[in-house]
Automatic annotation (TrEMBL):
Belongs to the TRAFAC class YlqF/YawG GTPase family. RsgA subfamily. Keywords: Cytoplasm, GTP-binding, Hydrolase, Metal-binding, Nucleotide-binding, Ribosome biogenesis, RNA-binding, rRNA-binding, Zinc. The keyword RNA-binding applies. Signal peptide: none annotated. The lineage of its organism: Bacteria, Bacillati, Actinomycetota, Actinomycetes, Propionibacteriales. It comes from Kribbella sp. HUAS MG21. The gene is rsgA. It comes from the Bacteria. This is Small ribosomal subunit biogenesis GTPase RsgA.
């Protein structure tokens, strides 16, 4: 045996490591908070209670790839006093009740979470300047139904055009609406927002920031104008922010959106947002898409026999078609 073979028999000393433990820290006493803004890895959170306060936090390493978004309910460890210069850690994300999502486009299967735990989607639409885009409105409705959120149409600039033609398109769906104009009474809208967590979405230039400033004194959201050449608004809100409503509730303002991909939405799930149609569709053949060209669809039989409203079925199918059409 060579000298080298003799030396190979000696094992290297083992690296000393601390024994792993199955015990994990408990955060039962951690402060629960609500994420209201996110900026470059820092989260501003609102801690409820008699001394409600804003706390700056960062995501704990143990959360790994777990995403934290605006609207999340989280648990904070460390200094959650909110004092200047302090930094807490987000150690847990409470299970979400709703999740508003979109994809970059209809060919992108990767969903992008926008807001968590909101119960109402306020679709802000100008009846003129810029002209309403029903395709985008339909997509917002699909996203609301997919997320389990209540949709509300908020029509702005009603002093420039009659809102009824646009409202008539959505009446068969039973979507509630409010009408506003600059400098007008916002009490009807405020009533719909009271004690809810609402997300404002809409095309750039429709007046979302003007609404926010009218509802919440001191919000100071930047407002812009519509380009007279393109008919499009300029992005004035560049980040998603949560604002407290006077009297109770939260209002989440989002940047203006010009496209809203729905690649993440399962078309089979959409019909369940319409219980009356879902019951009728139980008689459809397996694999039925419920589209207008679907063979032997039970919705067609129900319309022919007077058991379903033709306008409502047509409106549902328009939403279904928006899943596969451009915005």
């Amino acid at each position: 045996m060579s000298r080298y073979d003799e030396e190979a028999r000696y094992d290297r000393p083992k690296r000393r490591t601390r024994p792993r433990t199955k015990d994990r820290p408990s955060y039962d006493d951690a402060a629960e908070a609500f994420v209201i803004t996110r900026d470059r890895g820092r989260y501003t959170c609102w801690v409820d209670g008699t001394d409600g306060r804003e706390v700056t936090a960062m995501k704990a390493r143990q959360l790994g790839r777990t995403g934290v978004i605006v609207g999340d309910r989280v648990k904070l460890d460390g200094d959650a006093s909110g004092a200047e210069g302090t930094l807490a850690r987000i150690v847990e994300v409470v299970p979400r009740t709703t999740l508003l999502r979109r994809s970059a486009d209809d060919d992108d299967p990767v969903e992008r979470p926008l807001v968590a735990n909101a119960d109402q989607l306020v679709i802000v639409v100008a009846v003129a300047n810029p002209e309403p885009r029903t395709g985008l409105i339909d997509r917002f409705l699909v996203a609301a139904y997919d997320a389990g959120m209540r949709p509300l149409l908020c029509l702005t600039k009603t002093d420039l055009a009659d809102p009824d033609p646009l409202l008539s398109i959505y009446r068969p769906l039973g979507v509630e609406s409010v009408a506003t104009h600059q400098g007008g009474d916002l009490s009807a809208l405020h009533e719909q927002l009271q004690d809810r967590t609402s997300v404002l979405v809409g095309h750039s230039g429709v007046g979302k920031s003007t609404l926010v400033n009218g509802i919440i004194p001191g919000a100071d959201r930047a407002t812009g104008i519509v380009n007279v050449v393109t008919g499009r608004g300029r992005h004035t809100s560049t980040n998603t922010v949560v604002l407290r409503l006077p009297g109770g509730g939260w209002l989440i303002d989002t940047p203006g959106i010009r496209s809203f991909g729905l690649a993440h939405v399962d078309p089979d799930k959409l019909i369940h947002a319409f219980p009356d149609l879902a019951d009728l569709a139980e008689d459809c053949p397996r694999g039925c898409t419920h589209a207008a060209d679907a063979p032997d669809c039970a919705l067609d039989d129900a319309v022919a026999e007077g058991r379903a409203d033709a306008d409502r079925v047509a409106s549902f199918r328009r939403l279904l078609a928006s899943r596969a059409a451009g915005s």
